[in-house]
Amino acid sequence: MYSLSYTEIGLTITSCHGQVKGEGIVFNFERNQHLLRKLKGVSAVVLLVTVLVTLIPSGDVLANSAEKPKIEFGLVPDAQYCDCEVNGTRYYRNSVDKLIEAAQTFNERDIDFTVQTGDLIDRDASSFSTMLPIYNMIEGPKYHVLGNHDFPMTTDEIVNILDMPNQYYDFKHKNWRFVVLDTNDLSLYANPEGSEKYQQAEAMYDHLVEDGAINGQTWNGGVSNEQLLWLREVLNKAEKANEKVVVFGHKPVYPENNHNVWNDEEVVKELEAAGNVVAYFNGHNHAGNYAMKKGIHYVTLQGMVETENTNSYSIVQVYKDRLEIDGYGREQDRVLNIQQ
User: Fold this and answer.
1) With bands split at pLDDT 50, 70 and 90, how would you rate the model's confidence at 66?
2) Is it true that the peptide bond before 141 is cis, omega within 30 degrees of 0?
3) What is the pTM of this model?
4) Which residues contact 117 (CB under 8 A, 6 or more apart)?
5) pLDDT in tens, 292-335
6) What is 71-337's CATH number, 3.30.70.2580, 3.60.21.10, 3.40.50.300, 3.40.50.720?
7) 3-class DSSP state for residue 308?
8) Is 81 within 8 Å of 131 (Cβ atoms)?
9) How far apart are the C-alpha atoms of 305 and 81, rounded to whole Å?
10) How confident is the model at residue 340 (pLDDT cuts 50, 70, 90)?
11) Residue 163 and residue 146: Cα distance in Å, rounded?
12) What is the DSSP string of 89-157?
């Protein structure tokens, strides 16, 4: 929080909440607190404001100064830690310090809850003993999404280690519904060989390979009919309760990509049919991605494990008419407008 009066240019700022708006420029002080903290002293803030004001035509004013987000939540994508040597652009050990940094930021911002979108570890179950204590440093409720690298053991064992209510579940915060999917439900790594779900996964995978589908990869997975039915019921109940919905999954479902859920079109169909889903957040594709279709924003977060020193995590602010992503490190800022 900064307060200053800059009379030479006729501008008084009583709070650095809200936005400065002008032709082709928007600077949101609330979303850029991490930037302002890096500036040393009020004089640096005056310099920043001076630069902004020179670009803003006379008559523009500070807007939305009193607006506060209804909800703020943190997102941790693909930390993928293991005590392993560097592999290409993946610096596995560096995810320890990166997750500590994210935890400190989330606690400073006093967010409402945190979701890690899967692949907290890379391969060894022992890695959970390194990463979970750090993740649990984050204050407030914390939620897990299952990723394909989180399976050195069975689904039930991982759910137990992570203290999840189920492999897929939902929760409510204020008047919003948040849904966590398991995009490894039908896969060749999360189910015992020969089990019913393994056989279903094998059939789905073989069909995709025969069709030459780009997402016909063994490190992807599908969503079972049972889970799709559960998703439909949750979304319908949310619609009747007049709740907006945000969905989390590990793998993307849109746009078309080789990292997508095997039956991505079926998942998208359920999301679109509900009419109350605002956004779908996922990891898995460490390069990140974004698309919008029929009022739903599909955001693929960039992987934390990538690069030696640059982090990647986010804080999402929920407003009545939009979601604002405050990206840290490689993750970019975005404004996701809500269609009324």
Assistant:
1) confident
2) no
3) 0.82
4) 75, 76, 77, 78, 145, 147, 248, 249, 250, 281, 282, 283, 301
5) 999 999 999 999 999 999 999 999 999 999 999 999 999 999 99
6) 3.60.21.10
7) coil
8) yes
9) 7
10) confident
11) 12
12) TB-GGGHHHHHHHHHHHHHHHT-SEEEE-S-SBSS-GGGHHHHHHHHTTS-S-EEE---GGG-SS-HHH
Q: Which amino acid is at 138?
A: I
Cβ count near 83 (within 10 Å): 12
Residue type, 168: Y
Q: So what's the pLDDT on residue 312?
A: 98
Q: Write out the two tokens for 275.
A: 């009419």
Give the amino acid at 191: N
Q: How many CA atoms, within 13 angstroms, populate the side-chain half-sphere of residue 331?
A: 31
Residue ranges per structural domain of the chain: 4-63, 71-337
Is residue 221 within 8 A of residue 184, CB to CB? The reply is: yes
8 A C-beta contact, residue 319 and residue 67: yes
What confidence tens digit (pLDDT) does each residue in 76-131 have? 999 999 999 999 999 999 999 999 999 999 999 999 999 999 999 999 999 999 99
